[in-house]
Amino acid sequence: MPKVKIPRKSTNVDMTAMCDVAFLLLTFFILATKQKPPEVLAVTPPSSVSSKAAPDKSILVTMTADGKVFLTLGDETKKNAVIDDFNKTKALGLTGAELAKLKKSEFIGLPANKLKSAMASNLVIAPTAMDGIPTDSTNNELSDWIRSVTNAYAGEDQKALEKMLLVKGDNAALYPIFKQVKQAFKKNQIFKFRIVTNSEDIPQGSELAKQPAN
Questions:
Q1: Residue 125's domain spans which residues?
Q2: Residue 64 lies in a domain
Q3: CA distance 53 to 194
Q4: Where do the DSSP E strands lie in the chain?
Q5: How far is residue 32 from each of residues 25, 28, 76, 100, 172, measured CA to CA in Å?
Q6: How far apart are CA 112 and CA 114, in angstroms?
Q7: Residue 12 domain-assigned?
Q8: Cross-strand pairs, 71
Q9: Torsion from C-alpha of 35, 36, 38, 42, nearest 10 degrees
Q10: pLDDT digit string (tens) for 177-204?
Q11: Which of 33, 109, 147, 178 is deepest in the core (most CB within 10 A)?
């Protein structure tokens, strides 16, 4: 009895549907990915040999060369809670629209008494024209902002919060400004935070260079 020949089928595969899915996924990730927020102002921090990367979700205090202090709330999951708490504790009386505008801001660089008028205005204030957050000994408003941060993170791991706290200062920033920033943390029972620096190579022949790599 002769063998039955199985008809050969074409091995061509229509990739149109797969390509469509691939481009749809690529488009989704491009549109859904949140880019790293721009820095407040260009500052030149000191250099160090530390190679630890700063976390994406961070609370960054920036000190400029002329002594201004800015605050960036990089954790979007807590940003609204921090601003709501600051509005309540400082009795700013911001309206819903003003609060929404402040929450969309990339950073905070104005005294509390100027926030309401700035949010009510249609004018965009450049960072260089902002006064910065007051940090003097008689009116350390950065301490009030850090208090709102701790209130928003209340009940969570304190060590996790400390890892998110970053301080970035210009090389030309004077020490008294940094001291007031430290006081703002200390007043809120925060004794650890990270300093942002520029990376540099380990000096050859130093004790650090002789240590085995981890």
A1: 47-199
A2: yes
A3: 11
A4: 47-48, 59-63, 69-73, 135-136, 139-140, 165-169, 194-195, 198-199
A5: 10, 6, 14, 21, 38
A6: 5
A7: no
A8: 61, 108
A9: -140
A10: 999 999 999 999 999 888 887 665 555 5
A11: 109
Q: For the chain, how many structural domains are there in total?
A: 1
> What pLDDT score does 153 carry?
92
Looking at the domain assignment, is residue 168 inside a domain? yes
> What contacts 27, CB < 8 A, 6 or more positions away?
none
How far from the centroid of its chain's Cα atoms is residue 156's Cα?
19
Read off the pLDDT of residues 38-52 as tens digits, 9 standing for 90 and up: 555 667 666 655 566
The pair of three-digit structure tokens given for residue 155, joined into one six-digit string: 């009940």
- Whole-number Å distance between alpha carbons of 49 and 61: 21
Q: Which amino acid is at 51?
A: S
| Helix 76-89 / helix 96-104 crossing angle, nearest 10 deg | 140
Rounded distance between C-alpha atoms, residue 111 and residue 131, angstroms: 7
pTM of the model: 0.73
Residue 104 maps to a domain: yes
Query: Which pair of structure tokens corresponds to residue 105?
Result: 């801001």
User: Mean of the per-residue pLDDT values for the chain?
Assistant: 82
β-bridge mates for residue 69, sequence order: 63
Q: What distance, in Å, lies between the first and last C-alpha atoms of the chain?
A: 73
Residue 92 CB partners (closer than 8 Å, separation 6+):
86, 112, 115, 116
**From the CB of residue 81, how many other CB atoms can be counted at a distance below 10 Å?**
17
